[in-house]
Amino acid sequence: MQNKQKVTMGQYYDLLRRYLLPQRKTLIGLALLLFASIGLQLVNPQIIRFFIDTAQSQGELKPLFYAAGIFIGFSIVHQVVSVLATYISENVAWKTTNTLRGDLAEHCLSLDMSFHKSQTSGAIIERVDGDVNALSNFFSSMIIHLVGNMLLMAGIIVLLFRENWLIGAGMTLFVVFAVYMIQWIRKFAVPIWTQWRQVNAEFYGFIGEQLEGTEDIRANGAEGFVMNRFYAMLSRMLPIRLKAFLGFAMMWNTSIIIFAIGNALAFAVSAYLWKTQAISIGTVYLIFYYTELLAKPIEKIRTQMEDLQKADASITRIRELFATQSLVTDGPGTALPDGPLGVEFRDVTFSYEGDTGAPTLDKLQVMLKPGEVLGLLGRTGSGKSTLARLLLRFYDPQEGVVAVGGVDIRQCKINTLRKRVALVTQTIEIMEGTVRDNLTFYNDSITDDQILDVLGDLGLLDWYGSLPEGLDTKLASGGGGLSAGEAQLLAFARVFLTNPGLVIMDEASSRLDPLTEQRIEIAIGKLLTKRSCIIIAHRLTTVQRADHILILENGSVIESGRRAELAANPESRFSRMLATGLEEVLA
Amino acid sequence: MSTFTFLWRLIMYRPYRYSFNALAWTLIYLAPIVPGLITKQFFDSLTNESAAAYGTWGIIAMLMGAAVARVMLIIVGFITDVQFRFRMGMLLRRNVLEHVLKQPGARAIPCSPGEAISHFRDDVDQSEEAVSWSVDSFGMTCFAAVSCFILIRIDAQMTLFVFLPLVLVVTTAQLATTRLQKYRAASREATSKVTGAISEMFGNVQAIQVAGAEHRVAQRFRRLGDDRRKTMLKDRLMTEVLDSVFSNSVNLGTGLILLLAAQKMRAGTFTVGDFAVFVYYLTFVTQFITNFGKFLTFFKQMTVALKRLTALLQGASANVLTAFNPLYLSKGERNAKREKTEGKSQDPGGDRLNRIEISGLSYLYPDTGRGIVDIDLTLERGSFTVLTGTIGSGKTTFVRALLGLLPAAEGTVRWNGRVVEDLGSFFIPPRSAYTAQMPRLYSDTLRNNILLGLAEHDDNLPRAIHAAVMEYDVEHLQLGLDTMIGPRGVKLSGGQAQRTAAARMLVRDAELYVFDDLSSALDVETEQKLWDRLFAARGEATCLVVSHRKAALAHADHIVVMKDGRVEAEGTAQQLIQSNDSFRKLWFGEGS
Known about the structure:
The complex is a heterodimer of chains A (about 575) and B (about 600). Chain A starts with a helix and ends with a helix. Chain A is elongated and about 120 Å long. With about 575 residues, chain A is an alpha/beta fold. The longest helix of chain A has about 55 residues, at about 225-275. Chain A has helices spanning about 1-20, 25-55, 60-110, 115-120, 120-140, 140-165, 165-210, 215-220, 225-275, 280-325, 385-390, 415-420, 435-440, 450-455, 460-465, 485-495, 515-530, 565-570, 575-580, 580-585, and strands at about 345-350, 360-370, 375, 400-405, 405-410, 420-425, 435, 475, 500-505, 530-535, 550-555, 555-560. In chain A, the strands form three sheets. In chain A, strands 6-9-10-3-11-12 form a six-stranded mixed β-sheet, sandwiched between helices. Chain A has a four-stranded antiparallel β-sheet with strand order 2-1-4-5, covered by helices on one side. A two-stranded antiparallel ribbon of chain A has the order 7-8. Chain A is built from 20 helices and twelve strands. Chain B is of the alpha/beta class and about 600 residues long. Chain B folds into two domains: about 15-320, ABC transporter transmembrane region fold (Up-down Bundle), CATH 1.20.1560; about 380-410 and about 420-585, Rossmann fold (3-Layer(aba) Sandwich). In chain B, strands 6-9-10-3-11-12 form a six-stranded mixed β-sheet, with helices on both faces. Chain B has a four-stranded antiparallel β-sheet with strand order 2-1-4-5, with helices on one face. In chain B, strands 7-8 form a two-stranded antiparallel sheet. At the A-B interface, helix 2, helix 3, helix 5, helix 7 and helix 8 of A face helix 3, helix 4, helix 5, helix 6 and helix 7 of B. Chain B: This is ABC transporter ATP-binding protein. Chain B: It is a multi-pass membrane protein.
């Protein structure tokens, strides 16, 4: 327990130093405003006391008007100060969390595929957005409110001690008691609240399932069944909701009782002091006023402590994420040769489950000369796509060496490697943004003319002409508004815009109809001049341009050779495929 | 329906509970009157001992008594509030859900399920909130009236001079909050851009890494974040200014009182006790105005909520929303329901099917204009008809329109010669049962997923499971039929889900079984078994099957080939192979 506490403190310190320290000038200003605001809140009751005592002793009228004027003036100044303080702290919070969010996002993007496959994108979003949002309060109002309110509370108590030790001591006891009670009562209220939230989530999960399954329900006459489940759920929810809200009422009631006790205490002590003539009537009012003023910081401190607990969990998770290292690390940066790149797999063994799992690729040997085209065939799960992923270093093999252009790819910088090795897959990822952004990925060095040339090559100029705002037309996320074929062509265009030495096409044309496929054949031919290529395919037509054919099964090569030779040899699997159709042989 | 009628009808769903709730909350809001008066008593007892009716201890006892009374009232108030609100909100949800379930199943909601859920949750919550706050504004108004009366009796002039300007200031500020909406909308848009960017970044991680664009994408994300910061700050600044007007109005009011009271206090006509009670009520008066403002906001939002909920009904009257229906929350209601269902004997049973004649059936999807046109088809008792055709030829649309899962625009369906009026409510068990193309399973046990409320009798369940080739899978589930499936339980494979849906259909004794692409996720062996068993198990039942698998086509005694939403050809497999080009392609495969 002790140890855990220490870690947490260290974590806070780390984050604060890294993200809050750069803003230290603003923070100093903020602290000054905070002090001013507290001072103004503390001085006002003193003015009222002066006013009452002067009025009661039949003093002059003029000072009374001055006092009233100063009171109003201070109130307005306080208002301005508190607005300013909130504005600044909010600004600090956004700046720090934006930096943190950006750093986290960049870190996550740099992690390898085994990380991304093990996490749903929803979970990562929750970290980068949800957890950082929880921290935003930690960075801003926590400082203002927690520190500010503690200071305010301390100030009130000090000032009460200044009046009389008895009232000071009484109120100190009261504050300790109040904070303790409010914390204690939470123990009962919070779990029921969590329970209510859970039932609620279940309820909407239920509604969602019904709304998705209306067809099944309707056609199988199950409406009655659904409604009965709905009623059963209601009967279960009502008592929990009642309990949850009573828990909430309990927290409210606790503060009502506690502050009534506070008032009673103030009344009792000040009545006693008044009767012994130790204090004036103005001071009695001052004590009353300060007691009322205490309610605010006590409540605020409670809510801030809750937020602090939430931030705690978030900080731990964020730190874990930062600590996650990519399994694929940059090499020293050996340069790849210019021009077409050869490929070599030497005894490559790889499993997605690490060393223990069944190997997806088993001592694989592949050789492709620069400038040649390799057709890769095999049924689903034979390891074709895995081979492509290894070439781009989404994963590293457990054994063996993958070399591109004669260089072990672990010696290259990952970024350089991916610049020279391009991949087109059947899943096309269209992002929300303009057509240009989708083609260039925000690379400003690619000119519009280059883009138009490529679109022309791919026969997309008609499509381009139909875009209302040309390259600035917005595309919806997931490619809504694009046909599957068009989206696929855009994926090709992305590759055309870079200058790779090796192109991998993983079932890239599977979504195109035969007509379109023929149309882009010419464009692909152009793309592949002076480049090496690996074509992964289900359909035999797609590998027509291959110089070499490789058939994989269970992660090993079961046939390999020049396409023309294999086709000519009636004994080869490839020629049998050609004769009977691919599906029959592989199914 | 106007928003006000809507509000009124919701209140009238449980008028006594509402009134009781209103009474409880009015008392809760009136309760702070007492501590105000007690405080005045306390100060007066100090400054003017002859006026003291109670000693200091008496006053303290009263103070605590008032607090305890208020606490009691709050407990009662929370109970009445939950009891009323829960019923009202759930009535709305019940009525919408029931209506949705009565709609043509494939078009039951006009939006995505996700959106519909947000209507179920948020729009109903908004309506609940508005109704609930009507109680609070009433209670607060009572408090304002009573406290004004007390203050005027103390000093009418002062009450007027202090509260009038204050009410004006706070009301103006409250009105200004509506202008906040603009800033709110901007900051919300900026936020959704940021969250959108995050989900895209991590949804498209591979493409980004392939393009080596990690840094550029992150850079763009940072820019969006900064835009959000700017809009957020504007929004916050406005909110904070208004908030501080509310919270500081008490201080300003106190200052005003000081200014006005100077002379009177010196003259002794305005006591410290009077001063204390003035300041005490100030807080609550500003609260009154903000609460009233809140009610107005909720009321406005209720208008939007009503519009959205009505849209969910797809053209039905908004009266559906507030129709009176029991929720079976009390024992009495539940018992009454049980008696009713027990009294009602099983459905009289569909009349034996001899022949279904479909003529001129049409349905066009409103957004694409595609669909089916003018379909004629006759199904004889005991026949096995297979609908086939390429993707997008209208097979599923036809089946859905026939079963009333899509609202057919034209055409008639005759059951034994009689025209069926409402297809959707006619084609249900025991007349027909159906397996959808993408069947849905619910988070429940496998048993309940198959039965969907049907009683288990004889060996209907094991028989259905056998016919659907599920017995092996059930054996291998840890808890067998009682295994929880769905997102929180065991996740079934696509093939298992399809066979569960088939069992769901087969467990219902029906005259007509309709299955849409039953075998699309099954391997060859299981599929063969399934068709064989189905053929044996169906008995005399009529089957209408959507499929392009040879195994199904081989069993068919009648095949319908569809193309572009029309029937292209009909006949047996032999006939069609000879006469129909598209059928030949389907039968022999398109070739590689």
